[in-house]
């Protein structure tokens, strides 16, 4: 273990030439540098955030949902049937035509009736709009608060106005309490998301989101350990700028405020394009690639850090293209918001449901059907897999 630790914390990888860990271990009185041990403070804070989230969703978000007439509960339930229930639980939740024909003959039902039963049975396991509203309201609240705090902090920082201050005197840059709290809060939040994924709404992109949260934790921790926290604060602030707008659009969708949802999605798209395709490459990548090269010079972790940021920029371009496609489809179809990641299924051959049983179209619903078209949350599932780096 000692040999492994020595290999992992190799000074020649983490630090510029002629700098050692010992140089950073004993700063002058009143001066604090980032230390790897500080990162452990995020774990108990993540537990606190997780508990706060439970109370927030139960008492605050739930009350807001009810005030908007979003009630807990599920839609139409499948009628009890032992044969179909056994097939559903032990064989398949989405039977093919062979299974449908066999069950139709066995039960003397029409194939469409068997299909409808399986559709209703699958929907019983889907989360209610009330549950999704509470989750989105929590995310909106945290994203808005952390962005507000981070923006106020970087606004008062000299490296906001001259990014070369990210590298002057590096790595002997003082860690201020405000910067420490910003970093630890962001890190704790993503730790809490990793914990809560096992209790949240189960989505199809569970594994992708888990890897995203793990990668985000790794990037934040990496930049903290080698004291790239100044430029790291800029990266986090840029990536937080559009997340809360997307969550607000989802809230508007769940509250059935379609025009507000459309407007917020447009705001999100514009904010995403500006922050990811303009500000990030022109302002931040220019500093990490060229200004740092001129002031500090390259070293192994510098290459790794910039490689990860360049990969992130490639993802920004891909996600921007996807959002642009979503926006174009939204304008052609007239509506933009729906949560296709966990939406209730339907099809064109289904009979109209009760007025209180509003069925939304899924991402593969044929063009021309009633209902919203899934663009807002399609962006969510494709975009939020990166968004906080």
Characterize the overall form.
elongated
Provide a count of the helices: 16
Main sheet specs: none
Element order: H for helix, E for strand: HHHHHHHHHHHHHHHH
Biased composition (Polar residues): 359-373
Pfam families: Homeodomain (PF00046), TRAM_LAG1_CLN8 (PF03798)
Main location: endoplasmic reticulum
Subcellular location: Endoplasmic reticulum membrane; Nucleus
What do you see in this structure?
The chain is 65% helix and 0% strand. The chain is mainly α and 389 residues long. The longest helix is centred in the last third of the chain and has 38 residues, at 258-295. The chain has 16 helices and no strands. It is elongated. Helix 8 (129-155) packs antiparallel against helix 10, helix 12 packs antiparallel against helix 14 (258-295) and helix 13 runs antiparallel to helix 14. The protein has helices at 2-8, 11-14, 21-25, 42-67, 82-90, 97-107, 111-124, 129-155, 158-161, 177-196, 206-225, 229-240, 243-254, 258-295, 300-333, 375-383. The two termini are 30 Å apart. Keywords: DNA-binding, Endoplasmic reticulum, Homeobox, Lipid biosynthesis, Lipid metabolism, Membrane, Nucleus, Transferase, Transmembrane, Transmembrane helix.
């Amino acid at each position: 273990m000692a040999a492994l630790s020595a290999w992992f914390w190799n000074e020649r990888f983490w630090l510029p030439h002629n700098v050692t860990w010992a140089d950073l271990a004993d700063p002058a009185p009143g001066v604090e540098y980032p230390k790897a041990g500080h990162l452990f403070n995020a774990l108990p804070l993540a537990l606190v955030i997780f508990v706060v989230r439970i109370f927030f969703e139960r008492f605050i978000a739930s009350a807001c949902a009810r005030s908007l007439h979003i009630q807990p509960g599920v839609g139409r339930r499948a009628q009890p049937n032992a044969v179909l229930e056994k097939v559903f639980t032990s064989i398949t939740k989405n039977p093919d035509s062979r299974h449908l024909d066999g069950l139709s003959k066995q039960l003397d039902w029409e194939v469409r009736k068997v299909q409808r039963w399986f559709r209703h049975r699958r929907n019983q396991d889907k989360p209610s709009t009330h549950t999704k509203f509470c989750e989105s309201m929590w995310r909106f609240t945290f994203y808005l608060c952390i962005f507000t705090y981070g923006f106020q902090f970087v606004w008062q920082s000299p490296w906001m106005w001259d990014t070369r201050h990210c590298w002057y005197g590096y790595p002997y840059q003082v860690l201020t309490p405000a910067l420490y709290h910003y970093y630890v809060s962001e890190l704790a939040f993503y730790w809490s998301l990793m914990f809560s994924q096992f209790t949240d709404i189960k989505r199809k992109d569970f594994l992708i989101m888990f890897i995203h949260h793990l990668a985000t934790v790794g990037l934040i921790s990496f930049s903290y350990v080698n004291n790239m926290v100044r430029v790291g604060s800029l990266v986090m602030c840029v990536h937080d700028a559009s997340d809360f707008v997307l969550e607000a659009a989802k809230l508007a969708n769940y509250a059935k405020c379609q025009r507000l949802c459309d407007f917020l999605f447009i705001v999100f798209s514009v904010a995403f394009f500006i922050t990811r395709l303009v500000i990030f490459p022109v302002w931040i990548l220019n500093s990490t690639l060229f200004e740092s090269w001129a002031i500090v010079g390259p070293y192994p972790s510098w290459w790794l850090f910039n490689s990860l940021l360049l990969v992130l920029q490639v993802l920004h371009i891909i996600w921007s293209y996807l959002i642009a496609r979503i926006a174009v489809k939204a304008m052609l179809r007239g509506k933009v918001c729906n949560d296709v990641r966990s939406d209730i299924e339907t099809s064109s051959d289904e009979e109209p449901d009760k007025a209180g049983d509003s069925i939304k179209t899924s991402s593969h619903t044929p063009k021309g059907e009633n209902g919203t078209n899934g663009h807002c949350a399609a962006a969510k599932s494709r975009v939020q897999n990166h968004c906080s780096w």
